[in-house]
Amino acid sequence: MHKTCCTLIIFVSLLILSCGSKKTTIWKGQRVTLEIATKQSLLESETIYKNGDKERAKIEFEKFLRTFPENDSTDDVYYYLGRIAFESKNFDQAITVLTKFQTTYQKSTRVTEALFFLGLSYKNRGEFETSNTILIPLASSNLDRKEMLTLYQAVASNFEMLKKFRNSLTWLLKEYLAQEKGPEKEKLKEKIVSFIDERMSLKDLRELIEFAGAEFPAPYYYAKLIKYFYHTLEYENALDLAQEFLNKFPLHPYAKEIQTIFQNLTKSQGVKPKKIGCLLPLTGKFASYGNDVLQGILLASGIFSDAEGTIELEIRDTGDDSQQAEDMLRELYNEEQVIEVIGPLTQETAVSTAIAAQTLNLPIITLSQKEHITNIGDYVFRNFITKSNQVEKLVRFARFHMGIKNFAILYPDHAYGKEFANLFWDSVSKYGGSITAVESYDKDQKDFTKELKKLAGTYYTDARRNEICDTTDRFQNKIKGLNCFSEDMLPPKFEFEALFIPDTYQTVSLIAPALSFYDITGIQLMGINSLNHPDFIPRSGEENIQGILFTDTFFSESTHNELREFLKLYQTIYGKDPNLFAALGYDTMNIIKQVLATNKPATRRAFKEALHTIQGYKGVTGTTSFSENNDADKDLFLLSVDNGKIVEVN
Length: 650
Hints:
- The structure is a single chain.
- The protein is 54% helix and 12% strand.
- The chain is α/β, with parallel strands linked by helices.
- The protein has a five-stranded parallel beta sheet, with helices on both faces.
- The radius of gyration is 43 Å and the shape is elongated.
């Protein structure tokens, strides 16, 4: 009995201790746990707020804070007090309460919503930078769709008030994409169109158009720019953009208006999109080359076919006069209204004419070899084999396919030869080779004894005095097993493995046979495209130029389909075989036809831009692409002499 009584006393004591571990309070006349009182009080206050009685809800939330200071629900109460202040337009108080919430209850589940209303409060107080600093990071949060739309609107409005219209447009478009289809989305679309028309600067629109694609609001960027250029008399800009607009947005509601502008400009702008000018030396010392180019142009233009032609040609004879060529270019520009010009051909006329073309913003495709001519400006193009093209092809092949390291240069002492020599030397250095000997000769020279003896190391005999002896000494030295020579019988002494001669086939045909006479043998001869001539082998002697390497952009023996068709057509029309110049004229005209057919440029600038789209064009002068600096990048033929024929090296 005593034992049972003790057990009961212990149980009752534990029960009292257990009940006493939870704090209690008097709430509405009843003693309840503090946890129940706080939850019930918060629930009733939230209900009052949700029923729309903000004043009473504010009183109840403040009473809650006095009655139950610092508990698990305090963050919710501060959030509601901040939100009530915001909704009552008491933005100063909202900022005070929500800032305290943000700094005190950073782990609360209501942080994102509190920051949302804090950002909106700063916006309504006119502190737009601060507002965006708070709101923009929330764009990647889990706000509901309605709140996110409000955020986009607020940020866009803030940027507009800060006069950062480009940023404002970005957020308006975010809102537009987030909106569901319906009247609200259409209303927002109208707002964006007005915003573009009223707020966006010319600079902004030009930048936006680069990345606009074909979706809304891209057509409106174009439309505003077109109208701007049209009314400020910048007709070429207006034409370019109008053409782009009609190509991209043919069914847009603005298309009819833009079409009218386009037609008006086409009539008044002074450009005939199908008219091409030709500036070529048809008389004078370069007449044969100019006429060959013209024959190629005429063949490609389609005048010999039954099909109705789409190209109008305006042909001018520049002769050898650079001033005449420049005057003719201006005539083609002003009176004939050509969209593009082919030529000139010679270096004498090409530079001044190219400068004039650049000044006029008239695209020109010159056929000159003048190095760096395209550096004159972005309207100057060139479709011709260049010196740098040739030496690069030769040196790369010699270095990496033949393993040649040491080179010599024998060049004519004039501007053309010097330029080739310098480019070759630079290319050899670029690819890790060495130039071990360099000699020059006069341009009209026929005897190359001195230069070849210098290359052979037998000209400066004083430098080899220890190898020279008289007849008696030679006999005695021979007995002793030593060799010495008479002054005129010194053996060759040179280090180079290849000799580059950048000259015509006529000059090389004089030099090549003399090399063996001066014992310069066992070397690789290299030359330039002027060696690609039917008279080169018979004039030089097959054995003297066997294996010589040179390059060209045209090789009539090639098996390429485009070339075979061209040869057949050319021979049918003109009764003779074409040469490089005819081929270049043919390819240039066909490139122009491709641009006109594919890009349909209505302005000279559009034509210029379209030329850059020519990449990998397969023509009779090989594969052609226009590089960034407007030079034709051609895949040259590597040629050699083998068994009495000029052949292509694989």
